[in-house]
């Protein structure tokens, strides 16, 4: 809501004035009731509930989805109905499975995700009636149900494995692990500690207000575009290393550093701006990202469960974090670990390959994207997003015919 530090400049437009704010450093693009970040205190709330209570206090990913979409925690009956509906729509149209044949086996799974999720708009043309709340709800269910199936298919295709059909007797997250890891000879046996860890990753990544990918989904949705095409645009934006690609970049960075002895030299390079410390820094958090603290505890639990307490990557990550938290370069710029700093280590321990990390992020963030899209589409005062620019190009000049150009 508008407070003393917020200036509502909408009236400027009528006077011909506008503001210049590249990167949206000081501009709110919309009002939203979904997620609140207190960047100075390092706190995150979904619909008013602290992230720690949702991720570590008994909720699960699908309940968090219900909360984000509908604004309230479900009753037992509402949750059962929601879980049943999502679970029963996890299959994709058989025709869609042929899309993969058009991709190279070594294509990045995010490239496949952008293409296949965008293609859902060709299968669900009724979702074009975006003014109809019931049609929007159906699109939400379709996306939540089918995104894990599509994500797992991207992985299986890249491995040359047959697609695994969903299992309705498993939880959302256990079913995803089954679709990733089951083989005809060895069905995946869900380990509750590992399923819980992945479920927590999904909760922590479910929404984060107006980040680049969510803003993209809102902007494309504001033209009335098909929701599946809007989500494909969000996936494309998420892919970049400054956003969802950071978890993959963290693991590649840890590989490059190799061992704790090489940390000081690497940090010198960071300070000389040769490279960034991936998994550090955030546009909004100027304190510890609360998701990073939960992720670190989850990392501890998973490594203990798997007997990997001496995992060299975890030790290296902790050494980097310790140095960074004491170093003037990071302290003065308020650079703290973000959620992606430890999530890659957890995902590696779960057996998820590095190229799939951002895909898992997309699976989780789909609910945030679609909740924001739905909130925006429900607003009777919604306007198409149309940023302005400062033109810095050539002044008016006359066209010169080719023969006269010299
Ligand atoms: N390592 C080293 N220095 C950094 C880092 C970093 N990770 N992040 C910011 N800085 C420095 C910048 O060089 C700059 O220094 P200067 O003042 O001397 O020029 C200062 O900190 C401010 O940085 P900005 O780039 O202005 O911060 P911005 O808010 O634009 O960027 C971002 C935020 C993109 C997340 C950035 O911190 C970054 O690239 N981090 C690494 C990638 C990453 O982890 N991304 C994940 C984000 S969270 C998510 O998407 C889930």
Automatic annotation (TrEMBL):
<dbReference type="GO" id="GO:0006099">
    <property type="term" value="P:tricarboxylic acid cycle"/>
</dbReference>
<dbReference type="Pfam" id="PF00285">
    <property type="entry name" value="Citrate_synt"/>
</dbReference>
<comment type="pathway">
    <text>Carbohydrate metabolism; tricarboxylic acid cycle; isocitrate from oxaloacetate: step 1/2.</text>
</comment>
<dbReference type="InterPro" id="IPR010953">
    <property type="entry name" value="Citrate_synthase_typ-I"/>
</dbReference>
<dbReference type="InterPro" id="IPR024176">
    <property type="entry name" value="Citrate_synthase_bac-typ"/>
</dbReference>
<dbReference type="GO" id="GO:0036440">
    <property type="term" value="F:citrate synthase activity"/>
</dbReference>
<dbReference type="InterPro" id="IPR036969">
    <property type="entry name" value="Citrate_synthase_sf"/>
</dbReference>
<keyword id="KW-0816">Tricarboxylic acid cycle</keyword>
<dbReference type="InterPro" id="IPR002020">
    <property type="entry name" value="Citrate_synthase"/>
</dbReference>
<keyword id="KW-0808">Transferase</keyword>
<comment type="similarity">
    <text>Belongs to the citrate synthase family.</text>
</comment>
<feature type="active site">
    <location>
        <position position="340"/>
    </location>
</feature>
<dbReference type="GO" id="GO:0005737">
    <property type="term" value="C:cytoplasm"/>
</dbReference>
<protein>
    <recommendedName>
        <fullName>Citrate synthase</fullName>
    </recommendedName>
</protein>
<keyword id="KW-0012">Acyltransferase</keyword>
<dbReference type="InterPro" id="IPR016142">
    <property type="entry name" value="Citrate_synth-like_lrg_a-sub"/>
</dbReference>
<dbReference type="InterPro" id="IPR019810">
    <property type="entry name" value="Citrate_synthase_AS"/>
</dbReference>
<dbReference type="InterPro" id="IPR016143">
    <property type="entry name" value="Citrate_synth-like_sm_a-sub"/>
</dbReference>
<feature type="active site">
    <location>
        <position position="282"/>
    </location>
</feature>
């Amino acid at each position: 809501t508008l407070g003393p530090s917020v200036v509502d400049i909408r009236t400027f437009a009528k006077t011909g004035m506008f503001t210049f704010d590249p990167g949206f450093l000081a501009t709110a693009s919309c009002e939203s009731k979904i997620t609140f970040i207190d960047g100075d205190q390092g706190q995150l709330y979904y619909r008013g509930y602290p992230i720690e209570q949702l991720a570590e206090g008994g909720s699960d990913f699908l309940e968090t989805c219900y909360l984000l979409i509908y604004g309230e925690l479900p009753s037992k009956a509402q949750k059962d109905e929601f879980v049943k509906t999502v679970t029963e729509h996890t299959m994709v149209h058989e025709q869609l499975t042929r899309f993969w044949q058009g991709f190279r086996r070594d294509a990045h799974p995010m490239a496949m995700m952008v293409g296949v999720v965008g293609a859902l708009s060709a299968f669900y043309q009724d979702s074009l009636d975006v003014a109809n709340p019931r049609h929007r709800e159906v699109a939400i269910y379709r996306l939540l149900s089918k995104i894990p199936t599509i994500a797992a298919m991207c992985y299986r295709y890249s491995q040359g494995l047959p697609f695994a059909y969903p299992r309705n007797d498993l939880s959302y997250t256990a079913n995803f692990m089954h679709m990733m890891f089951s083989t005809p000879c060895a069905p995946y046996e869900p380990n509750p500690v590992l399923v819980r860890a992945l479920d927590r990753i999904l909760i922590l990544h479910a929404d984060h207000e107006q980040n680049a990918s969510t803003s993209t989904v809102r902007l494309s949705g504001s033209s009335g575009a098909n929701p599946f095409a809007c989500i494909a645009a969000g996936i494309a934006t998420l892919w970049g290393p400054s956003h969802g690609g950071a978890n993959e970049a963290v693991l590649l960075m840890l590989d490059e550093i190799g061992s704790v002895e090489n940390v000081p030299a690497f940090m010198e390079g960071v300070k000389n701006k040769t490279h960034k410390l991936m998994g550090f820094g955030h546009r909004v958090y100027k304190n510890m990202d609360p998701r990073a603290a939960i992720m670190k505890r989850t990392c501890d639990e998973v490594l203990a469960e798997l007997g990997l307490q001496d995992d060299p990557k975890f030790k290296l990550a902790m050494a980097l974090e310790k140095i960074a938290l004491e170093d003037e370069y990071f302290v003065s710029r308020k650079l703290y670990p973000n959620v992606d700093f430890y999530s890659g280590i957890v995902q590696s321990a779960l057996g998820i390959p590095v190229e799939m990390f951002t895909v898992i992020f997309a699976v989780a963030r789909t609910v945030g994207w679609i909740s924001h899209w739905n909130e925006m589409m429900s607003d009777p005062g919604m306007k198409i997003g149309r940023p302005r620019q400062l033109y810095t190009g050539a002044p008016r000049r006359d066209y010169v015919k080719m023969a006269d150009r010299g």
